[in-house]
Structures are given as C-alpha cells and as structure tokens.
Amino acid sequence: MTTMEIGKELVALCKQGKNQDAIDRLYSPDIESVEPVAMPGMEQTQRGIAKIKSKNQWWVDNHEVHEGVAEGPFPHGDRFIVRFKYDVTPKHRGKRFTMEEMGLFTVQNGKIVKEEFFYTMG
What we know:
Number of strands: 6
Oligomer: single chain
CATH class: Alpha Beta
Order of helices and strands: HHEEHEEEE
C-alpha cells in the first residue's frame, strides 16, 4: 500500500470507530508513538505494537466518546497528517470536553512506523 492508501484507510477506520482494527492492519510491530505529554502510568514515547494497543485500550476504558471526527489524510512524502476531533467525558471525573488533535504518521515498507500527536484541550 502507498502512504496515501494507508492514510485513507486509517481515516476510514477511525471514522467508523475501528481504531483497534487500524492498529492491527496498518501499524508496524515496531511502531513508535509520541504524545505531547506522558499519559497516566505511561511513558511519553511508547514503542512496540503491544504498548500502542494498551494505550488505545486505556483511552477506551477511561473515556466516553460522544463523537469522534477524523479528517484527511494530508500527505507529504512518506508521512501524512490526520485531524481528529473528539467530544468526550472522562469516566473518572465526568467533565465533558472537546479535544482536537493532529496526528503525524510516518510510513515505511507499507506500514505506519511512527505516530506523533499534537493537541490542545478546552
């Protein structure tokens, strides 16, 4: 698959709420994921498919998602950006908020090898 094809499939799966399927289909076993800050109980940079699946499961377990939007991909060589917007309520504190996030994905050998997230909340 080309970088653009991978980006389109990622966006399509995320629009359907199938983020775990996207990880299974599109991510390299050696994926690296970088967040702007460390999440509770996790390093800021996660490496390996098992840790990425765990991080995704943590998000699902700790947030009620009222709406999720994915837009893109916006390609540039072996990378692409996807814009995400989530309307969520954390299950542990209950204060609903909107989160916009940009994901920069790097592709090598037909798989996503790195994801970097940029976001604000408010």
